[in-house]
Amino acid sequence: MGRARPRAGPARRPGARHPLLLVRLAPVLICWGAEDTWIPVARGHELAGLIPGAELRLIEGAGHLVQEDAPAELTAALVRFLRTAAP
Q1: 14-22: long-range contacts, CB 8 A cutoff, minimum separation 24
Q2: Least C-beta-crowded within 10 Å: which of 7, 10, 22, 80?
Q3: What are the extents of the domains in the chain?
């Protein structure tokens, strides 16, 4: 058997744009667990800083699995964002 070739993702295609360039077309909300021990909150701030106009929402009481740790708070944050971000 031959070795499987890696799939050509955005970073592998010649002339491909960086994926973060595409998010400038729409409002961006980044929801991050305030108690995330897998990926520090500082990385959330860093990510938000890379996306012009992005909003970082820290979800209190949530770790890495925000949707499981704080589903009601996450849903409320998403609803607020969608109501204000819609044209």
Answers
A1: 20/50, 20/51
A2: 7
A3: 20-85
- In one-letter notation, the amino acid at residue 21 is L
pTM exceeds 0.90, yes or no? no
**With helix as H, strand as E and coil as C, how does the chain read?**
CCCCCCCCCCCCCCCCCCHHHHHHHCCCEEEEECCCCCCCHHHHHHHHHHCCCCEEEEECCCCCCHHHHCHHHHHHHHHHHHHHHCC
Residue type, 3: R
Residue 7 CB burial class (10 angstroms; 0-12, 13-18, ≥19): exposed
For the chain, what is the radius of gyration of the CA atoms?
17
